[in-house]
Design brief:
The complex is a heterodimer of chains A (about 475) and B (about 375). Chain A has about 475 residues and is of the alpha/beta class. Chain A is built from 18 helices and twelve strands. Among the domains of chain A are: about 170-415; about 420-465, no CATH class. The chains are: A alpha/beta (about 475), B mainly alpha (about 375). Chain B: It holds the Pfam family MRP-S28.
Chain lengths: ~475, ~375
Amino acid sequence: MSAPNCLRCLVRPSTAIPLAIPRQASPLVAPFAPFSTTTATAAKKEVKGHVRGGKKLVLGKFKKNKVESRVRPPGPGERKAYRKRITLSNDNAIQVPWLTDMGPGSLLDTANVAKVLALPEEVQDQLRASEAFKTTQSWKMFRKPSVLVRTETVDLMNRIQGAVEKRQTLRVAITGDKVAGKSMMLLQAMSHAYLNNWIVIHVPEAHELTTACTDYAPIPGTEPPQYTQPTYALKLIHAIKKANEKILAKTYTVSAHPELPQNIPANTPLLAIANAAKEADGAWAVFHALWNELTAQGANRPPILLSLDGLAHVMKTSDYRAPGFDRIHAHDLSLVRLFAEALGGGVQFPNGGAVLGATSRSNTPRAPSMELALAQREAEQRHADPAEVPQKDAFFRGYDERVEAVLRSVQVLRLGGVSKLEARAVMEYWAASGMLRAAVDEKTVTEKWALGSGVLGEMERASLLTMRI
Amino acid sequence: MASPANLLRLSLRTSRRLPILRAAATQQPLLRRQFSSTPPRPAAKDGGQGVESEPETFADPGQYLKTFLRDDTITEAEREEATRMLEGWEHLPKTQQREIETVGNDITTDTAPLRKQIVVKRDSFWHGGETDPDLITNEIGEDDFEEDDMMALGHAKLEEHREFREYARLAVWEMPLLSKLAKPFQPPAQEEVLRFRYTTYMGEFHPADRKVVVEFCPADCAGLGEVQQLKLKKLAGARYNPEKDMIKISCERFEHQAQNKRYLGDLVDKMITTAKDPTDTFEDVPLDTRHHKFKTQIKFPKDWYLTEERKLELAAQRKQALLLDEQKRTEGTLIDGVQTIQEALLNAKAVEELVPVMRGRPLKAPVRGRR
């Protein structure tokens, strides 16, 4: 603290002089400046010349209607959270009296075709944990999340069940028109798996893996080099853990895992391995160990459902760059590689299971190899004339052999419009929920069904998401 | 001016007079040197012609003959002739001599303006006073309408009529004769695989009349197996149409049609020879059809036709659906959205108004009176 009065003059501090005055009047000029060669008085800037007065140019003085926003701006991440929010219930919707919950065998029963079944609470939580619900689906309109059982649903579930019973792995690529219910089919398969106590590993958006929006790191000692995505792996482990907690707690390791950050001896619940992933750094090792344990041959393992939404994103070159600035193929990313191997039939699940990949139509890059392979498989499935099976364009260079190898033996499930009976069932559910203000008779059903050509999303747009009441 | 009555009058005018003598002669302007770097010089006198002096004018032929006889350079025969003519002149009666003199004087005075030399006015705008000596026709006064002819409109109408009649004559007299030249159509034989197309502009010159186009199908060429045909298609490149299975080549490189046709014939021969050559069958090159856009013919689906059976079937389906609806309505299982909402509103329990309660304090009865 500086002395209140000048040190040079030996005047005593007087109480008559208020101490605050010199501070307020002008800033204290330091008696000497350590970095200056001029005296303090000389260095003081003098006001010389003309001081401009009068009018000055003021820009934007006529913008009178500037409304001062008194609203608190949204915090960081708040808008995104709002955008990504999933609402599964609407208290204003009317409870549908005849709605029944889905049971373990509901989706296998042909009697349930053209019926709307509600998802049980527990399954809702599991599906939410594995991000099976999407913001674009209109869950927020109804009291309880419910799904329409389609002919294709029962067909696919029976195929999966049959494969599981034979301890085989069913590999299906789900494709179809826009808003035809491809993601919903995945959700139904997952609900079936959760209800039957299977392990479900679900990649909700494949583009998160390949559009270079999450960090990546090379795995040392791999040739050609492979890359991990630690943060995404950690997120996935958490999702798996949350969704499959009960089953993981009941499943035990067959071998010890000393390479993990937490030492896991044999005969430990798999949940312990999942719990070992605390940080992104060791996440891939944990995931790898978990995957090895789940697919360990000869052990008592539940059936596994591995599903991915947005197949085209993982069937092409990713946006990641290798150190040489070349693009990394999506199948060189370890997580995608794992899925691709499983879809290609390279992995045998010990107790059977299914690998499902759904294409997307709204957010999809061009993957010519995938499109061609799916068309070829489809033609083969309906035993088409060999001349009608689409062939490669000899003068097109964009084909990808790795993708072709993966999709060489998958089955293709094409989803289109629903039948009129199914359309009626879902419309009755809408009307009973108070969301469709019309009598559900043949006329209304045919009208909406024809408007959307049977595609459920289009029917929904025509009747639910319109502003006309 | 151009009223219909006036036009009619002018068009129907039958009396036709000869037009007045137009400008008597073209007048040559005085030739002047356009540009010169040397001063003008008189022509050499020793050349014989000498400087053109003003020609002497004579009042009568006697005067002229006397002057002629005075000249020393004339021959004897000329002198005799001139002397005889002079005697004849002098024997004429005085009155006749005077008449001839008057006529001569009149001609001289009347033609004076024709002989006058035209001097171009230097300051005039674009030599305005000058008549153009280089015209193809004598245009002067051509466009003046003398009211002795039909209008151009009438002439055009007449010309049109003449043209109609000409073609009518052709159609009646000459066209029937063409049928004698007609040949019956004969489909191309097995070995005639090339189809040529020529262009004619009916005798007019046109840059495209030399163009020749040849089309042929590789499958028609004799002696070509599957492999050779494929090679031929690959050789043709973008000239191959995979939809029609035809190769089409054109040529307009040479000046005459025949040359172009010859070139095309040679080229096709060469292509077929190359296609037959077994050293390289182009097996590794796929057939390129990127140049061709395949058109899919969309046809109305057969199942969509509203036949009588289909109509009956649809009617039955609709009737069934209506019956089902009616049955549901009577049973009360038909779901009506509006009705559902109304019922739900009626059955809804009145929600009690929420009263805030301070933590740790019992719920108080509502305060009466002032607070």
